């Protein structure tokens, strides 16, 4: 009963901030916060929800460490500067994460238990559909923001196609690099239940993808400035 009211209050507070795209440091700080929160969830899952409270003593240092990291990440996020404008791919990632985190809550439990109870293919589809929808919404929002200035002189459609091609190329590179990082984590961190592997693998994928997108955006921005100077 209280959760919807709490979420509505947080959404109202964040509504103004949501209109502006995040920077690479802001996204990485958010990712650290998400990872620390995930560790706390796994500690609860590994003790209370699996009825193994005998493990609580050895898990408490992990929980306290994750709580400290979460608090430090939120303090850091509040002090980050938002003066620099993010690039095309970073803007897409920020908007895609916002949409996906909201949409994935709908099938989350079905995906989790579908993997465990014999319907992994259906669970994969249920996980991919919100991701695809979030990506579509993010492309729409990103292109609408970046092509607004070109629509007045009749070059909006051509500019939008160029932006879409640039975005696809940058995201393709980021996905390849991120998938390699996630695969390396799965090889290095085998665990007894898959969530404990999925969390660091997803964190490695997102951190690598965000960093790659930031580097590609910066390289593209420098190339544009060099071309204008020439």
UniProtKB/TrEMBL annotation:
The chain crosses the membrane at residues 21-45, 60-77, 97-116, 122-140, 161-185, 197-218. It comes from the Bacteria. Keywords: Membrane, Transmembrane, Transmembrane helix. This is Uncharacterized protein.
């Amino acid at each position: 009963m209280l959760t919807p009211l709490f979420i509505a209050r947080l959404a109202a507070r964040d509504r103004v901030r949501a209109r502006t795209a995040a920077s690479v440091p802001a996204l990485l700080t958010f990712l650290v916060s998400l990872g620390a929160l995930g560790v706390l969830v796994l500690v609860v899952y590994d003790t209370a929800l699996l009825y193994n409270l005998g493990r609580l003593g050895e898990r408490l240092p992990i929980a306290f460490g994750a709580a400290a990291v979460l608090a430090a990440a939120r303090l850091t996020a509040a002090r980050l500067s938002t003066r620099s404008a993010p690039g095309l791919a970073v803007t897409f990632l920020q908007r895609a994460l916002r949409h996906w985190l909201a949409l994935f809550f709908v099938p989350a439990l079905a995906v989790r238990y579908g993997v465990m109870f014999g319907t992994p293919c259906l669970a994969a589809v249920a996980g991919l559909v919100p991701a695809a929808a979030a990506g579509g919404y993010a492309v729409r929002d990103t292109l609408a923001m970046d092509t607004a200035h070109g629509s007045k002189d009749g070059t909006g459609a051509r500019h939008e196609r160029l932006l879409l091609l640039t975005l696809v190329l940058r995201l393709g590179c980021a996905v390849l690099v991120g998938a390699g990082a996630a695969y390396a984590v799965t090889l290095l961190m085998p665990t007894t239940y898959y969530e404990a592997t999925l969390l660091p693998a997803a964190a490695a994928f997102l951190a690598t993808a965000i960093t790659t997108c930031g580097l590609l955006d910066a390289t593209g921005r420098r190339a544009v400035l060099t071309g204008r100077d020439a």
